[in-house]
Amino acid sequence: MATLLHLDSSGQSESSVTRKLSSHFAEKWQKANPGGHVIYRDLTSTNVPFASEALIFAMNTPPEKLTAAQKLLLALPDELAKELLEADTYVLGVPMYNFSVPAVFKAYLDTIVRAGTTFSFEGGYPQGLLKNKKVFVVSASGSDFSQPPLSSMDFLEPYIRAIFSFIGLTDVTFFKANGHNEAEKSASLSTAKSSISSHFQPVVVS
Q1: CA nearest 19: which of 98, 102, 81, 88?
Q2: Fewer CB near the terminus (10 Å): N or C of the chain?
Q3: Does domain 3-199 have CATH number 3.40.50.1260?
Q4: Domain residue limits, the chain
């Protein structure tokens, strides 16, 4: 069964551009996959743990040697990893905060980029374990970072592409919106929605 993992990480709620776009994508995906399953996760209300010493030790402890306290600490990270492994398509709502990803999204990545789960050291170097999955990222920023000089400050897209490539996911597509006033935001949101909708339109072969 086709499965979509739908993540949001914006600190805003109804005013969030990325939430509107990720929701739009999920709706289009569901229509294109009527028998598919959507897993929704709002990272801002999930209490994703940050990389503490205890968590790092637990994540690097063999399963058979975990203490009861470590198993409890790993309960949520294991659940997040299970969702990631179960899905074959991802839509990630990731706004740009200070040129990069929100802290809660970075914390999420630190829980799912795990040796033995999403990558291995087989052969003496890291190899991604996730294959044949598609990643769609909807992002929003106050300015257009696609052209110089601001493009040199965009650490969000290169980082996301690098971290997902590290775990084996190289099929990554971005849908972006930008603007700091309501008119710009509205126009950019409309354009991004149209791009998402176009992605789901059938290809006509003449």
Answers
A1: 102
A2: C
A3: no
A4: 3-199
